[in-house]
């Protein structure tokens, strides 16, 4: 299909940090997607926590399955809006490459360890992965992705870190955090698809885990509405089929809401190009009613699932693993793999090393270094 005037055109990309000839059969954004899929960091996502630790069950979401779901939702929204599907897929598949083991628990612990060293932001770490930490090519570090893909990967960034990035790359991917402009519409879309995906799949995983019940989730008006619709059509529906049908209908409603709301915003703003879209307000969004309903669902999940005593218990142990690994590697850098041990900026090298670990590798390393076994399968 043809791209809208406000979509990112791969023929007009701002390019790569290191020049390369074009591929004969793929656009620049297709090429980025392929590089991401073949990266080491992408494969590691299969053993990185989303909400439930990897050993707690084979069917819970991981960072990998989450990223695939985000990509699917983003492409479903991009096509009717005339946005670049290949770019949204590349951004979606790369957006969590820098996430630590043990999900947000690991990130928070690593951020505490790095206070005084610039902290730790997983979005910034994802950019570090694609810009520097992947080692696949003879002529450069990282994956050498296009500007537009890298911009989408850097979803959030503190002012201090944005200024550091701007010094190293004037006018680069961090500039918008200083100028207060917007990323591409494709990047805006991936941000929202990320939220839609985790709201939906965390309901599924929460009920599957037994930590919350279908009846509890039906207290949330957004979810209850679509369960009610399913029961009106299929009165005998119950259990997992009712759960899945409620989630499916809710997902569809959220997707169509984004499409309709964004179309209206684009019609009003009339951006003549992808660059023009960067200099206005955010254009990819929920309607006010859906934003409020989605917010209520997020509050429920935070209170009843993410702060459930069992999740809090594993979170505490996971943070202990990360903190103790950091301390041991800082004391004895030679315990890390040679490439990390040889780096001069030891705290950042330690953070890079730990952030790249899967859950189970972090647990094995912790047991090797401390003699204690935490969060055992």
UniProtKB/TrEMBL annotation:
Print the keywords alphabetically: Hydrolase
Checking Pfam families in the record gives: HD, HD_assoc
Q: What is the lineage of its organism?
A: Bacteria, Pseudomonadati, Pseudomonadota, Betaproteobacteria, Burkholderiales
Q: Does the keyword Transmembrane apply?
A: no
Native organism is: Ramlibacter agri
* This protein's name: Deoxyguanosinetriphosphate triphosphohydrolase-like protein
Does the record's keyword annotation contain Membrane?
Answer: no
What family does the Swiss-Prot or TrEMBL record give for this protein?
Answer: Belongs to the dGTPase family. Type 2 subfamily.
Q: Which GO terms describe its molecular function?
A: dGTPase activity
Q: Which GO terms describe its biological process?
A: dGTP catabolic process
Q: Where is the HD domain?
A: 63-199
